[in-house]
Design brief:
51% helix, alpha/beta, three-stranded antiparallel beta sheet, six-stranded mixed beta sheet, 1077 residues
Amino acid sequence: MSGIWGDSSRVASLLVLISVLIVASSPRRVLCQGEDEYSKSGNPAVLPVVTSLIYNQIRNLTKIFNKEITSTLGFCTQNVDHDLNGAFEFESNLDFLSNCVKETKDVTKRICTAAEMKFYFSSFMNTNADADAQILKLNRNCNLTSWVPGCEPGWACSVPETQQADLKNVKEFPDRVYDSQPCCAGFFCPRGLTCMIPCPLGSYCPRAQLNQATGVCEPYAYQLPPGSTTHSCGGADVWAGVGGSDEIFCSAGSYCPSTIQMIQCSRGHYCRLGSTEETACFKLSTCNPNSNTQNLHAYGFMLIGALSLVLIVFYNCSDQVLTTRYERMAKSRERAIKSARETAQARERWQVAKEAARKGAIGLQKQLSRTFSRNKGDAPVPSKPLTGVHNAKKEAGNLTKMVQSLDSDLDSQSGFDMAIGDRHVKKQVPKAKQLHTKSQIFKYAYGQLEKEKAMEQMQQNLTFSGVISMATETDVKTRPTIELAFKDLTITLRNKHKHLMRRVTGKILPGRISAVMGPSGAGKTTFLSAVAGKIRGCHISGSILINGKPDSIHCYKKIVGFVPQDDIVHGNLTVEENLRFSARCRLSAHMPKADKVLVVERVIEALGLQAIRDSLVGTVEKRGISGGQRKRVNVGLEMVMEPSLLILDEPTSGLDSSSSNLLIRALKREALEGVNICMVLHQPSYTLYQMFDDLILLAKGGLTVYHGSVKKVEEYFGSFGIHVPDRVNPPDHFIDILEGIVKPCAGVTAEQLPVRWMLHNGYSVPPDMLHYCDEIASASKGGSSSSVQESPEPSTPGSEWKDEQEPSIKFLKIHDLSNRQTPGFMRQYRYFLGRICKQRLREAQLQAADFLILLLAGACLGTLSKTKGDTFGYYGYMYSVIAVSLLCKIAAIRSFSTDKLHYRRESDAGMSTLAYFLSKDTVDLFNVLIKPLVFLSMFYSFSNPRSTFPENYIVLLCLVYCVTGIGYVFAIAFQPAQAQLWCVLLPVVLTLIANQDKGDKYGRILRNYCYPTWALEAFLIANAQRFSGVWLITRCASLNELGYDVHRWLICLLNLILSGIGFRVMSYYSLLKFGKK
C-alpha cells in the first residue's frame, strides 16, 4: 500500500507540473494557480516551476522599461538590455526567489508593479542626491491618511486575496495594504512603498537583525518604528548610490554569487566592492585573503625597466648610427678628394697638351719675334683693365688666373688693373713709353716662373688641402653678380620722427669688399639691415636698385648671405654638421654631392676650422669651441651657400688680429669670384684696413661722410686740411673726429663733414643743414676754397646716377630672381629631421629628467587618488590632467622657444618653414607616444582603476597630443617666461571651468570647449562602464551630476585629436606671422 501511495503522489505531482505547463500561454493564470497549488500542497516538486515562472515575470519587466530607460537614462547606459541583464540576470541562482515563495506563499502579490518601480526610480533620479533617495513622495498606499506597517522600511504588503497584481501595469498602483510581512531576503522594500523589488547582482540583501544596543536593524541603517512593540526588522530598505547608501553592496574583500550569499575572497584573488565573483590576481602581484585590490607595483616597475631598456638600446643604437654616419661622411670626403684630384690632374694634362699643340702650330721662333720685337711700326695698343689682378703678388691663385688669361691669348695687351668703380680710369692709362717698360715680356716670363713653381709644389704635395685648392683655383667659378645701388636712403622711426639714416647714396659693387665704419649711433647696422631687407618698425624712403632694377632684395634671398652680429649657431651640433646642413639646404639641388662636400671643405680650410671640425659648438650651459672659432663658424654658415651678396655685421668683433686676418683673407678669396661683400667694422687694424676695396664712413644720424675707394679716402680728407698723423690708423683718426675726440683743422668741424660730402658730389642738402653751407662758404673765402674746388673727385659709385629718378621703396610681391633651385620640401624635411634627431639624442639627459618627473607625478597621484566607487576616480583623473598638461606643455615649449633666432636666420635664407615645423612635430611624436606610457606605468599600478590600461593610454595619448600643440602656440607667440606662465595657468583655469556646475548657463557653454572636459569625460566613461549590476544607479547618478554621456567616448577622443591638429595649424600660422619679428 505504501508503494501505491508513493506512486500516486508522484503521479499527482507530475499532473500538477503538466497542468502548469499546459496553461503556460496565460502567464498570470499559471502563476496564480502555481502559487495556489504550492501554498495548498507544499509540494517541493512544483517549487522550481513556480520560481521559474515568477522570475520570467520579473525579467519581462525590464522589457517594459527599455524604451523609457533609453530616453531618460540613455546617457549612462551604452546598451540597455545588456546593463539590465547585468543587474537582474538571476537565472543561474534562484534560491532567493524560491525561499521567498516558501516564506510568503504569494510573492507575485508582493512584488512591485511596473508603475511602482517607475515611481521609485523616478523619485531617485529627480533628487540629484543619493541620501535623499530614501525619502519617496506620498502615494496611494502610503500617505498622510494611510500609513500601514508595510510602508515602513524593510516591510511589504499584499493585495486582497480576490485580486491579482498586474506586474505590467505602468499607470496605477494596486491597493496593496494587506498582510504586512518582512521583506524577503534578496529583495529590498523602500520606505514609502508597500512592495518588494529584487536586489541587483553585486548586492547582499539578507534579513536584518536588531542590534539591541543601538536599536538599528543591521546590516542596514534603519530603526524600528517608535511605539510598535510587535514590529521586527525586515529586509533591505533601499538601493541607491554608494555615496548615499552602501548597505546592500557586497563588501570589499568578499564576493556575492547571489544576493543572499557572501563569501570571503581567497588567497591569490581580489574582490572589489559589489563583486559577484572573485578575480584572479596576476602572477607577480600580491593578493592576501580578503583583498579588495591587487598590488601592481611590480608590473609598474617592470614596465619602467623595459621602457628604460628600450630607450637605452635606442640611444646606443642611435649613437652607433651617428658613428656610421660620420664614417660615411668621411668616405664621401675621400670620394670628393679623389674626384677633385682626378679633375685637377686632367685639367693640367689638358692645359699642357693645349700649350704643346699651340707651340707646335705657331712655332717658338714666331712667338719670340712677336714678343721681343721693338719695331717702331708696331703701334702700342692701349691696355685694358683686368679685374682682380691687383693682389696678384699676394694671392698665388689670382696670379694663376692671370697666367691662364695670358696663355689663352698671347696677343693680349692687357695691363695692370685699375680700381673698380674708379671714374678716372683715363688718367691712369700708361703712356707709350710706359708700355715698353711694363711690357708683356716681363709679365709673361714672371708668370711662367710662378706657374712652374706652383705646379711643382702641387705635384709634390697633393694633400687634402692642396687638392681642394687645385680644384677650386683652376676652376674659375661664375656666380650671378648683384650690384646694389641706393639713392637718398632715409630711415625714420615710426611715430617718433627720428632719423636713423638720412640721404645715403651710393653703390656696392660685386667683386669688392666694402667696409661700413663710423662712431656709435651712426646707423651702421641699420644701414646693413635696410640693404638686406631686415629692418622693421621704421619708415623707409628713397630708392634701392638691384642690378639697376627696383626689385626687392627678398627676390634674391637664395643667393644673399647675411651674417648677424650675434653668433647664431646650433650649439649641440658639431662645426662640420652646422656647415654641412647649411650647404645641403641652400646650395643648388642639382649640384652633385661631391661638389657640395668640396664647398664645405673649402670653407673649413679657408676659415682655419680643420682642428675643430668634429667638436660641438657648445651652448651657454655646455662649453664648446672658443668665441673666435664660433664667430668663424657663424660666417662659414653663409659662405658655404656660395652667395653673390654677402653682408656681415661686425664679423671681426671678439677676434684677435690673426683670426681677423684669416677671416678677411677668406672673404677676399670670395670677392675674387665676384661676390659683393659689405661689412660693418669697429676699429680694424691697419693691415685689415688695407685689405678693403671701398669705405663707407657714416656720421652720427646716419649721414654719409665718405663713400668710395679706400685708396682715395686720405686724399679726399686732405683736400680740406684733415691729415692723418704718423703712426695713426686712418679709420681710427676719422672716427675720433666724428666722435668729437679729435678736433679737425681750423675752419672745419665734424658737423660740416656730411655737408661737404653732399656739396662735393652735388647732392641736395637738407634744409636744417643749410647753415653749414654758409660756414663752409665763409671758410672758403678765408683761403681754403681753392683746395675744396680743386680737390679730386673721389670714385663715388653713387655719383654716376645721382640725377636719375627712381621709385620709392615698396613692399613688392616677391618673385624668385636668384636663378637657383634649392632642395624642395621633402628633401629639406629629411635634412631637418636628421638634424633634430641628432640634437635630441644629445639632449638625452634632459629627456630623462622629463621622464623622471612624470614617473614621480604618476606615483604620487596614483597613491593619493585611489579609485572610489562614488566618483569613479574623478579627482585622480582631474589631477592627472593638470599634471600631464603642465609637464608636457613645458617640454613642448623647448621645441621652438630655444630655436627662434635660428629659425629667423634660416627662414630669411629661404629654407622651408613647413619642413622645419613638421620635422619638429615629427620628432616630438616620440615623446607623445612615450610619455603616456611613463606616466601610466606608475599611476595605473598605484591607483588600479577598473578601466583597462589600453583605454587609459589612448585617452592620455590624445591628451598629450592636444596639449603639445598648445605648447607650440605659446612657445612661438610668447617669450619663454610668458610662455611658461601660460603653461602653468591654463590647465588650472580650464580645469576649474570644466568643473563648473551644469546648472550654470555660461559655465556649461565654456566647459564644452575646454580640453580638460573632454579628457575627464573620456577617462570617467572608460572607468564607469566597468561598474555594472549594483553600481548601475551610482553610475547614472554620477554621470548625470557631471553631465557626461557614455556614448561620447570616441567623440571626446576625436575632439582632443582635432584640437591638437588645430593648435598645430595655429602655431604654424604664428610661426609665419610672428616668427620673424
